[in-house]
Amino acid sequence: MSTDLDPELSASLQARADAGSPIDPEPLLSAAVARGQRIRTRRRTATAALAVATLAALAATTALLPRQHPDTSMEPAPASTGPRNVNLAKLPEAAGQPGATVRPDLVGTDPGVLHFSVDALAAASWRVVWSAEPGVEIAEVQRTDFRTYLAVAQARSKLPAPPLFFSGGPGLVLSAPVQTSVAGRAATVRTSDLYPDHGGPSRLYVFEWEPVNGLWARFEVWTSGGQQRALQILDQVRFDQARRCVLPIRLGYLPPGATVPDCAVDFSYGAPDLLSFGNLTVIDNKRRLSIQAEGSWPGSGEYPRPLKAGPYQVYADPNGRMWTILAKGLFITASTGAGKNSLTQAEVFRILAGIRIADQVGNPATW
Amino acid sequence: MTFEEYVLARGVALVRFARLLTGDEHQAEDLVQDVLARAYVRWRRVGGVDRPDLYVRQMLINAHRSWRRRLTNREIAVAAVADRPTGRDAAAESAERDALWRLIRQLSPRQRTVIVLRYYEDYDDATIAELLQCSPGTVRTQAKRAREKLQRLQTDLYAPTGDHR
């Protein structure tokens, strides 16, 4: 027996961890997503019950909210436990705002406006994410038959590095760019076959082109329908329209000099009402405060100390950097960075106290 | 990093880690699925922290602790399943590793977690302390006691049994 235990321990643990059946991350991902969707559904039910019990007026409002209607025309047939395509919420039109092809110089300049629309793709999907940050605007649409990811920017260098959707996936290799065209404009396309989709083998197509001078776009699509199908899907993106990037909350107070440079809204099947998630970031010099509005309870039993910030009861996480509000069926969480990048609790509470929640949290047109 | 990216990149490592926590292949996959499902629900927060992988591992450790408590309450015995020898264990060169693993299984759950984090994941004491929500001093104490116990068990295991001959 060796007297040096350390290498023996490492070797023994390594051998034990490696023993057993090979591990495939794809089924793990599918199962986790399916379970996660069920959790969200349960929380939606619990949240609705709480709202009915405590806020009769809100319950009456909730009854008037638009409901999601399954779209049975999508292929393949949805699995009973997996996500399915539904009629997800749409962001409101940005009245008076031009689309990206009309004013490419405005793209990426205002986190409150997205200078394109993917409504046609999102009409029957299980997840749509819109986001805007300095220099780039992004939309992601996930459906049971394909997935897409779009980024637009004024300069090619501002586009996030491809591939956007599975950028962290192990071993994803894109082909060399091949010349093609998109809507009559010169473009490149790259492909990858690494990840088969659930409904059969899919290929990733990454198109990059300049829809008009001064506007760059990258569009990724996973589809089993070939490049022609990929282009048909791309053709449903509208660059001549604009949408407002909005959340059911607004910040009524910002510290002097602070800015909100980004916006993200996530609608997904299984989310309570319509909103799955929304995020704003307050930047005060180099200090950051992320404010998230979720339609589902992000945890339970973790916030033992109710405090007050303006009209809201705030639950402080023991880590001292996260605060949660439950109001109007929304779970609003503020989290700040560590150390010198953090705001104080007093500063955070001033911001939280100024939050205004939309009257109809389930109706983006009113946000 | 999206949830999908994370699971595809780190899911295998999580299951391996869970195998060492639970000692059971099937429990490990179930535990990881359970934790990932909860991570999925709150991914915008999890994915936004400095080290999401560490955060998920902390969820895994906490979930395992909770599972263990529930299993204990329901008096479900699971430990024996993990110790059945495999073909790999039966090989002569791995016999000693297998024996050591059986000794590791005799450690208290907290000591075993410290040993796994230190000798399998190769985390430093500060990171282990963060994961276990205790002080680095406590980690060092737990590791020291675990090593002492393992050495004692090894001594017992390999001690001559002359009294019976």
Q: Which structural traits does this protein have?
A:
heterodimer; A: 367 residues; alpha+beta; Jelly Rolls; Phosphorylase Kinase, domain 1; 2 domains; 14-stranded antiparallel sheet; two-stranded antiparallel sheet; B: 165 residues; mainly alpha; Rna Polymerase Sigma Factor, Chain: A; Arc Repressor Mutant, subunit A; 10 helices; 0% strand; disordered C terminus
* Rg of chain B computed from alpha carbons, rounded to a whole number of angstroms: 18 Å
> How does the helix and strand content of chain B classify structurally?
mainly alpha
And the CATH topology of the largest domain in chain B?
Rna Polymerase Sigma Factor, Chain: A
**Largest sheet: spatial strand order of chain A:** 5-6-7-8-4-3-2-11-12-13-17-16-15-14
Q: How many independent structural domains of chain B?
A: 2
Low-confidence stretches of chain B at least 5 residues in length (pLDDT < 50)? 71-93, 161-165
Choose one word for the global shape of chain A. globular
What is the approximate shape of chain B? globular
User: Biggest protein-protein interface?
Assistant: A-B, 52 and 51 residues
Total helix count of chain B? 10
